[in-house]
Every structure is written in C-alpha cells, then in structure tokens.
Design a protein that fits this description.
Layout lengths: L9 E5 L4 H12 L3 E6 L7 E4 L2 E6 L2 H8 L3 E4 L3 H13 L4 E4 L6 H13 L3 E3 L5 E4 L3 E4 L8 E8 L2 H10 L5 E6 L10 H10 L5 E7 L4 H12 L4 E6 L23 H10 L3 E3 L2 H21 L2
Parallel strand pairs: 1-2, 1-5, 2-4, 5-6, 6-7, 10-11, 10-12, 12-13, 13-14
Antiparallel strand pairs: 3-4, 8-9, 8-11
Helix pairs in contact: 3-4, 5-9, 6-7, 7-8
Amino acid sequence: MAVFINQHTRVVVQGMTGREGRKHTQRMIMSGTRIVGGVTPGRGGESVLFEEDPVPVFGSVGEAVAATQADVSVVFVPPRFAKDAVVEAVESGIGLCVVITEGIPVRDALEFHAAARANGARIIGPNCPGLISPGKSNVGIIPAHISGQGRIGLVSKSGTLTYQMMYELRDHGFSTAVGIGGDPVVGTSHIDVLQAFEEDPETEVIVMIGEIGGDAEERAGAYIEANISKPVVGYVAGFTAPAGKTMGHAGAIITGSKGTAAAKKEALEAAGVRVGETPSQTAQLVRDAIAELRSQAWLAR
C-alpha cells in the first residue's frame, strides 16, 4: 500500500508542454511515475519525447482520461488558468488533482475546491510540492533521489522542509511524503493525511511539519490525541518570526499570540506529539521513536 498514489497510478500532466511542466515530467518519469499523457488546449495530437519515448498531448483532460484511463492529474499551469484547469480535471473524472501552481487567488481556490467536493475528488495544494511514495510513484516536484523507501509517513506545509526532512531521515526512508501546501485554503489537510497514515500498514511513524499562522496544527493535535495510535513527531517552522509579518507562504501570518510556533508546539505536546525546534532535532526524535518501536517489538517476541 501507499497513501493516495502507488505504482499503478496513471498520471496526466496539465501544462506538460510548458517549461516547468516539461522539466518536472522528465523528473517524474525518471523516478518511475506512469505518465500517460499531457494536456495543453489547442495542441491535441502532438507528443513530447522523454527518454526516447513519446508522451501524447491531448487538448482536454476529458480526452486524456478517455484515452488513457488516467486517475491523477498534476497541474503546472499559470495562476490565471489554474481554476479552469482544476475544474476541468475534477469534472472529467480525475480522482486526485495535485496543484503545484503558486500565486492562485484565494477566490479561485475556493471555487475549484468546491468543484472537487461536488465531484468526489481530492485536491492536494495549491502551492505545494506534491507527493511521493519512493519506488512507486512521484507526482509533483519532490526530488526522488533524496530518500528511499521506508516506514515513515511525512505530511508538511512546506516544500523546502519536506525535502530537508526526507534527506535528514534518508537512513530510514519513507512510505509516503505529502506536501499539502501553505496557502490559506488547501484541499487536503494535515488531518486528512494523518488519518491516511494511521490506516496505512506500511507507515510506522508519522512526521508532521507545520508553520506559523492559522490553527491547522492545533486542530491536528486534537485529532491526533483522539484518533491516532502511531507515534507522531512534529516540527513547527517560524519560532523567530515577528508577529503580524507574513513569512514565506501566504498563510504563514500570526496575529498577537495566535498562530505562533510556541503556541503550536505547546498544543501539539499537550496532545502527546514530540516536537523538535530544529529539523535536525526533529529527525533525531523520529529516530528515537523508531528505536522504541523496534525495542517494543523485540520485547514482545
């Protein structure tokens, strides 16, 4: 098993013929992802060569789904076209739409999230790095070479910290890493991914990376306390951020004492989550949790 994607996932790339879409399609193919087509309006019938293999281009997502039975779309289109691209995908029967594009207006995001719910589809993002199940599938922009297969599940708001944590824990590896994005409105939450990891038999330990702003981490802590039986280790970026200043993501803004890293750390620790104050310290807490699980398994023999 894996979370949301696996070796059978069939992916179409919206915006594959653009610079970023072409570059990351090449990287996804090289990491084993089954890219079955690209979508660019007006360019249906063309193809793009990747590693000597042509990938067909379709004029619409509907045409791509009909021809390839694709079940996942990854979006690399400019912000002004993103809403229409996502709505087209979910209305064409795509079950998972991974929106890499940043700078999408909140109103547009609200509209395509509503369309996804109406069509029973899941959105990851926007403004996210995507997700990877090492050795199975890689949908988005996460570098495949920084870590291998293992039994850690990672959910993160931050793309950069996703990469760093995967590299820090490359000696153990990951079942799946999911970058949910840091915009004020995202399609898949920490809680959604936490529950998926709880149900995944290949995931033993969960790492949750948050950041200042909003109350997503506090809500996740309450959910962990009530519903998650596996060890959870957390990290909250932004311990030195000044109040009232946006830091990085559009959603990373704190007001007064609300949304601070210290407040989030306190809430998570109250729920039983071990929280590191640096990525390296967090990685060590994960190693400690894995060692404890191994020791318990040995004692139970």
